């Protein structure tokens, strides 16, 4: 399922994705986590995961792994940003 939440009236809404059986719990967790960064309204755990992954694996290693997975599924360009398809 796709959900939208807003941690406060001063921050933009955020989109989240969850399995239907866990959507309510996922929404509550995302909302509670977003309150920890009240100035952004964005989940702190996502920022932490992003930092750990970037420092551990690097951007290029991650992107190439993701693109390889898409290519194996038959959609090598389906999820690239428009700018990357111009090359």
Largest sheet properties: 2 strands, antiparallel
Uncertain residue segments: none
Give the total of beta strands: 2
User: In angstroms, what is the radius of gyration?
Assistant: 16 Å
- H/E element sequence: EEHHH
Number of domains: 2
Biggest sheet strand line-up: 1-2
Broad structural category? mainly alpha
Q: How far apart, in Å, are the first and last alpha carbons? A: 34 Å
- Measured by DSSP, the beta-strand proportion falls in 5-15%
List keywords for this structure.
87 residues; mainly alpha; two-stranded antiparallel sheet
What does this structure look like?
The chain is mainly alpha-helical. It has two domains: 1-42, no CATH class; 45-87, no CATH class. It has three helices and two strands. It has helices spanning 23-35, 44-57, 59-72, and strands at 2-5, 14-17. A two-stranded antiparallel ribbon has the order 1-2. The longest helix has 14 residues, at 44-57. 5% of the residues are buried. The model has no long low-confidence stretch (mean pLDDT 87).
């Amino acid at each position: 399922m796709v959900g939208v939440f807003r941690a406060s009236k001063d921050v933009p809404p955020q989109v989240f994705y969850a399995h239907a059986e866990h959507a309510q719990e996922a929404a509550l967790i995302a909302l509670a986590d977003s309150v920890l960064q009240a100035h952004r309204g964005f989940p702190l755990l996502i920022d932490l995961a992003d930092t750990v992954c970037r420092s551990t694996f690097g951007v290029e290693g991650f992107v190439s792994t993701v693109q390889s997975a898409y290519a194996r599924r038959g959609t090598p360009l389906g999820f690239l940003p428009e700018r990357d398809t111009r090359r």
